Amino acid sequence: MLTLSEIWIYPVKSLGGISLQEATAEARGLRYDRRWMITDENGRFLTQREIPEMALLGTAIDDAFLHIFWKNRPAEKILVPLEFHTGELPEIHVKVWDDTCSAWVLPYHINNWLSAALKHKVQLVYMPDTTRRQTDLKYTTEGEHVSFADGYPFLVIGQASLDALNERLEVPLPMNRFRPNFVFTGGNPHEEDNWTDFSIGTTLFRGVKPCARCSITTTDQETAARAAEPLKTLATYRNEGKKILFGQNVILRGGDGVVRVGNFMSYEL
User: Fold this and answer.
1) d(CA 96, CA 256)
2) How far apart are CA 240 and CA 222, in angstroms?
């Protein structure tokens, strides 16, 4: 029996995530997931690949604001309103990998706080509902959209997959190295690699391709320190086509969209 054990959103791409008991799945991802992104002055996306200290900034959401704060000093924070009206913020084109899309630039005081915190000149941008960023047409169809996530709306990983990795490591690693949206218990290591259509409760999803992993997985999410693991070990048994795979990329198919920790899961091969 497969059971959804964790739900995570990452409101700002590459900052800390939020653990939820319930979430709403929308076409471009879980509600609020990666709808904000930090860029340089030219609109090019920035992540922990370039600035590992981004791992030290946490996020939270209440009814009116996105909170961005230092994990070890949560009183030091900036508040970002959840709602802006069309035309209220300047619109620019931003670059995410090979994609270019429209985004709104947040006000100066927010960008100034982030620039001082990260010691880089940066700006925070938001993806409005009107922006359409197409997923990779090699694996999905026209009209499948994604937020500022690397490539696909959702990522699912089985706890058994992490357990199998940790059995090979001298020091076990937490799931947050891999930044999934969904974690499930039950089943065999890496069985999610082969999922096509599957359900979480009454919400329907489709697995489209295993996720290729990068150096962010080597960044300690509590200290921002980098090391060789887990990529060094994963390369010994999860290397395919010169890419290290861990987790399954996913799109939404339908259903009521509400997922809850404890939901049963089922799939088709």
Assistant:
1) 30
2) 30
**Helix, strand, or coil (residue 267):** strand
Is a pLDDT exceeding 80 seen at residue 135?
yes
Would you give the end-to-end CA distance of the chain in angstroms?
A: 16
Domain count, the chain: 1
* Cβ atoms within 10 Å, residue 104: 21
pLDDT digits (tens, 9 = 90+) for 31-42: 999 999 999 999
Q: Which domain holds residue 262?
A: 2-267
CB atoms within 10 A of CB 50: 14
Q: How far apart are the C-alpha atoms of 151 and 199, rounded to whole Å?
A: 21
pLDDT in tens, 205-222: 999 999 999 999 999 999
Residue 269's pLDDT is 72
Instruction: Report yes or no: 56 and 118 within 8 Å, Cβ to Cβ.
Output: no
Rounded CA gap, 246 and 212, in Å? Answer: 7
* The one-letter amino acid at 132: R
Tabulate helix, strand, coil % of the chain (nearest 5): 15, 40, 45
212-265: per-residue pLDDT in tens?
999 999 999 999 999 999 999 999 999 999 999 999 999 999 999 999 999 999
What is residue 218's DSSP assignment?
G
Angle at CA of residue 47, ends 44 and 49, nearest 5°: 115
